[in-house]
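Progress report, Aim 2. The chain analyzed during this reporting quarter is listed below.
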Amino acid sequence: MKVTDETTINTENFGTSGICSMNPEKNPSGKKRGCSLSKPVDIPAYKKLIYYAPGQKYDRINNKEDRWPDSTNRFQPLVMESINEIERKGIMAVFELKQGNYLSMVAVPGPSTIAWFSREENHELLINASNLGTGEVETEVPLFAWGKSDDIYMSMHLAWKEIIEDTKFGNHLKWRGAKEYPGIFTRLGWCTWEEYRQDISERIIIQSVRQLEKSELPVRYILIDDGHLDVKENKFVSTVPDKEKFPENWENIMRMKQSTKIKWIGLWLNFNGYWDGISECNKLNIDSSLDSYDCCKLNSTGPMKTLLPASGYENSAVFYEKMIGDAAAYGFDFVKVDNQARNLDMYINSEQAVQSSKNNSVAMEKTVRDAMGCLINCMAHNAVCICNTGDGNVTRCSEDYLAGNLIRVKSHIHNSYANIPLFGHTVWGDHDMFHSGDPCGGRLLAVSKAMSGGPVLISDAIENIVSEIVMPLCLSNGDIPRPEAPASPLPESLMINPAEAENAFRVAAPLANGAVAVAVYNLTEPEKLVKAHISSQDYIDSGMMIQPVPVKKTLPAGGILVFDWYEQEAFVLDSTHRFMMEKFSDKLFIMLPVINGWAVPGNPDKYLSPAVCDIIESSESSIKLRIHEAERFLIWNRSGKIACSDPDVTLNRKKDGCFEVRFKQRKTDFIITFSLT
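Predicted structure tokens for the chain:
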């Protein structure tokens, strides 16, 4: 911990990690004027930096508007040569220092303040903090956490470790790995939004569920998105759904649940009641816990008054217990809570804006934990939201997906991965829903969902779902093979802007049994030829988001076998495999350690092919596997001679040296042994 009263904060002599804070300035007149602090930060000589902020250069929705602190889902990293390029208020900066190491800095919220980086007119980096309100702040104010390391991911880990394990500044936060991942999200899901938007109804949902029941798609849960709430003038009225769209309340829809098909149903809710808050004509019967606030209408500078939870945690708790508790009472199994970052913006210029918004975040998470235990955070891109996910383990990590929009698809794929160094220490990233039939890249989007480890929600109209795109994501029971940590950019890809770069954008995720998935993308706009490669170094670096501590994997003594998923061919990796990518496209490689002469590409019908089995034991003469599901299976041995005594198995040696194992019919959860002939 470093408490500073310096005019300029000099990071040159900072230790390995810590939190920099300062005492608030006193107001001698006694007149309430709020708390607002700003300090220049001096950075040692650096080569370049990565700056995480909303609405930057490659924002494909609107990069002309500064909406902070209502950053919706729009955080994105931008690689810069100089601090002079900073144009937005940001939350994290990572500097590649000329002395050969990295300095990561993360703005830290406190009990009643939020912090952010910006650039002064004289081109200095500034750290700012404020309660964004009129009340005084009496306690010490955190500014930023930092971490220094020779490894870029370790520098970020050290900074986040300071925030997560801090007990002084009252953030409600835990490591991603310390929280249970919701079991519902380990299955395949379907969401109403991208196909139907707000034009949903009981009829459409029941019809969609019946279509799913008749199909072979193993969708196990649905999410009813925006379009169901009882609202007036864009404000929340009651927890009873729109009577015209849902005349029987939720009863008929809840009857659609089946233990072997659609087992769970989730509901979209708005953190603020609705987009412009809570109606003065509401029917919630919690008037004493609400108060009127002056703010602006959504997407407008026009003023309005709206109701929100009144100051004080107990009032926040009353509101969320009503909204979320009623959803649980109706029978919903989880909620997606949207529009969270706007909440702080709506409280600005009240007495303690940050404190009120933080109370809401903590109360909402606690209510979900107690009522149903399963949550997707959405539009939660500001420091108050990010640093108060002590219970929830899933947050949207990118802007909305938009079907059929190529530029948006490229940006969405990049930001979904590239924001993991910001969000992934505390939550799994939700890459949003997708249309499997999207002509701009249905398969690319499916692969990114597989790599994410987060929820997988298809959004096509049921009759338009492309089975050959969706089924490689899951087993026949809907279970999704998942990585051991969320896919994140490989170190060299952290330091490029892929829309203009000469090199491909590359991400990696560690899998079970020591395997690694590497996805490679050409995301240039306008499109151009890019250089691409995979290497043994990628295998070493792939433990970058492993918890509790990032790890550098050890290269297996037997080498690495690579399975090119799209080509369905394997090859032994000789240090580096180079290739070119001409246009918007991707490649998926599975890197497999060769142990005792064996490598297990696994079920080639699934994107994360080796994640469908467990290696029980192996020796130079045999290998024993538990396979979760397969109709065919790939296995490799350096000798090129493999046998299996199972009478239901046929073995065929492929040109690439792998043996394709064929079963008479699809088998699930079984043990099999292969040996050398």
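The chain is about 20% helix and 30% strand. The radius of gyration is 26 Å. These observations will guide the mutagenesis work planned for the next reporting period.
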